[in-house]
Amino acid sequence: MNIVNRVSKWLMPLAVLLCLASVPSQAASELALPPPAVKLSDNQVLKVYYFHGNARCTSCKLIEKYTKAAIEQGYQQSLQQGVVELQMVNLESKGNDHYIDDFQLITRSVVLAIEQNGKVVDYRRLDAVWQLFTDEQKFTNYIYREIGEITHKQVALLPAIESARHG
Hints:
Blueprint: H1 2-27, E1 44-52, H2 58-74, H3 76-81, E2 84-90, H4 98-102, E3 109-116, E4 119-125, H5 129-132, H6 136-166
Parallel strand pairs: 1-2
Antiparallel strand pairs: 1-3, 3-4
Helix pairs in contact: 2-6
């Protein structure tokens, strides 16, 4: 019994130390990205859609929750200014089936759309949300990266849009 007590004295602190040592490496595996600024022309809006149906599984609810959290936390001021809009759309509600063709939807999806004067000029369907919904930080980073890419593309097009207006 004496040997069991001695081993326990050494193993327990060692086990605790190993557990604590592994936590920082897991937490640092994906650092939080800051939300990129949304810079668009005056008549453009970034719409973030979450498309769902009547029946909603746990995964669907998490995707909606994480999408909503990422946008509301990262773009509070842009939401208030109307530069960013967040919409949850039930595809099974009357009149919403056009979104299936508009965004080539194949399942419940998150879509980023740049609208100009009420018309979609660019969009991205974020299919990887289905692989990332088990890790909120990776999910949020993915949404922020995609917002950065789609809005950066629009910023690059602004000089051409401006010269077409004035030329």
